[in-house]
Design a protein that fits this description.
Elements: E1 2-3, E2 11-18, E3 21-27, H1 34-46, E4 61-66, E5 77-78, H2 81-89, H3 98-111, E6 116-121, H4 124-127, H5 131-135
Parallel strand pairs: 4-6
Antiparallel strand pairs: 1-2, 2-3, 5-6
Helix pairs in contact: 1-3
Length: 136
């Protein structure tokens, strides 16, 4: 969990569960932007003492949260160029979240180069509601 990106007192929290016991590592470090945040996460994941993987290439699948999928996305979707272009078109539907979610997608493409990437949309739930539920 990366908090306060671009603000004073940024922090990153890394939880490790080993034999049923939670170990929590909290680092108060300056995290200027989302890219720096994802690199900090990668460092924690691969840390010699606290990491859970040796190399980012071990990651086979990355799920990226996207707040608003509009009418374009009704379920979890594998990310391809056309999907990214459509997500860009939906920025206005969630201007505080979708641009940052998109940046997260681009960063996971840089860091986890061999992993499949999927987008999971918060609005998936609303796509399954019966018409009378969202019109009344």
């Amino acid at each position: 969990m990366v908090d306060r990106i671009g603000l004073e007192n940024s922090s990153i929290t890394h939880k490790i569960y080993c034999e049923g016991v939670e170990r929590r590592i909290i680092k108060n470090i300056q995290i200027l932007d989302h890219e720096a945040g994802l690199y900090a996460i990668t460092q924690l994941l691969t840390d010699e003492n606290t990491g859970v993987i040796d190399d980012p290439e071990e990651i086979e699948l990355v799920g990226n949260r996207v707040v608003h999928g509009g009418e374009s996305f009704a379920s979890t979707t594998e990310i391809a160029k056309a999907v990214k272009e459509e997500i860009k078109k939906l920025f206005d539907l969630a201007p505080l979240h979708n641009p940052a979610n998109f940046l997260g997608i681009e960063m996971t493409e840089k860091i986890f180069t061999t992993a499949r990437k999927i987008a999971v949309f918060d609005t998936d739930f609303h796509q399954t509601m019966p018409e009378q539920a969202f019109l009344t």
